[in-house]
From TrEMBL:
Organism phylogeny: Bacteria, Bacillati, Actinomycetota, Actinomycetes, Micrococcales
Superkingdom classification of source: Bacteria
GO cellular component, one term: plasma membrane
This protein's name: ABC-type polar-amino-acid transporter
UniProt EC number: 7.4.2.1
Major localization listed first in the record, in broad terms: membrane
Annotated GO MF terms: ATP binding; ATP hydrolysis activity; ATPase-coupled polar amino acid-transporter activity
Organism: Cryobacterium levicorallinum
Length: 260
């Protein structure tokens, strides 16, 4: 894999860097009696990398899923680039395509080749011709270092390779923002870095990212901001440096003492 390029981003994504892209306003979510998201307010600006961190069960995945409308919310508003998340239908499919999602468990289509995994969305949702979708997919697979695996089935790839395909699949839709929910948690240790390198590369390129991860190295290298969640609330929101060296709340201090 290429060494990390730390040069400033040149992509046109950065032109409008700084405007609010994802706005989460007063959202709440219950599962029966359980109040999983409690009045969450957050803004992710264009080109920003936000790391969400917090104990298991604190609502991190639910928040990600809500932003992609994989989960309904009980109150509040989520807008993506100024557009309120639609309830359903074609509008939702399009808006969802603007919000790339990468899950802990890869979630590739098991019965499609690697290449088909990456071309399917662009053909179906973005209306690309097959040849164009394939050309684009190959470029993305090359970018994440798995172009030579294009004709294989997902199960023939290592976990790290599958996760890189999942990232290429998300990028193929030209998303405005990409959400990665513990993308390295299910990987064997020796594969974590190859996925983190791809993520750092995306961050350097100006991609807007929301990343749920406990990988402090990634947070320090790539994050503009850390959001610490506990029990359905945002408890701290600060720079990675400040969060890891000088956490303000006992909940953050307790959490960090367990993971560091
Ligand atoms: P995290 O990602 O921070 O570990 P989650 O968002 O997955 O947390 O979960 C938050 C809480 O909501 C947990 O207590 C979890 O058990 C509960 N939960 C998550 N999904 C469901 C569901 N589909 N039905 C009921 N409870 C759920
Ligand atoms: Mg989770």
């Amino acid at each position: 894999m290429e060494p990390i390029d730390s040069s400033p981003a040149t992509s046109n994504i950065t032109v409008r860097r700084g405007e609010p892209l994802v706005v989460v306003k007063d959202i709440n979510k219950h599962y029966g009696e359980l109040h999983v998201l409690k009045n969450i307010n957050a803004v992710v600006n264009r080109g920003e990398v936000v790391v969400v961190i917090g104990p298991s069960g604190s609502g991190k995945s639910t928040l990600c899923r809500a932003i992609n409308r994989l989960e309904t919310i009980d109150g509040g508003v989520i807008t993506i680039d100024g557009v309120k998340l639609p309830e359903e239908g074609k509008a939702l499919a399009h808006l969802r395509a603007d919000v790339g999602m990468v899950f802990q468990a890869f979630n590739l289509f098991a019965h499609k080749t690697v290449l088909e995994n990456v071309t399917l969305g662009p053909i179906k949702v973005r209306g690309l011709k097959k040849a164009d979708a394939e050309k684009k997919a190959m470029a993305l697979l090359d970018r994440v270092g798995v172009a030579n695996q294009a004709q294989k089935m997902p199960a023939q790839l290592s976990g790290g390779q599958q996760q890189r395909v999942a990232i290429a699949r998300a990028l193929a839709m030209d998303p405005k923002v990409i959400l990665l929910d513990e993308p390295t948690s299910a990987l064997d240790p020796e594969m974590i870095n190859e996925v983190l390198e791809v993520m750092v590369d995306l961050a350097n390129d100006g991609m807007t990212m929301i990343v749920v991860t406990h990988e402090m190295g990634f947070a320090r290298r790539a994050a503009d901001r850390v959001i610490f969640m506990a029990e359905g609330e945002i408890v701290e929101e600060t720079s990675p440096e400040e969060f890891f060296t000088n956490p303000q709340t006992t909940r953050a201090q307790d959490f960090l003492s367990k993971i560091l």
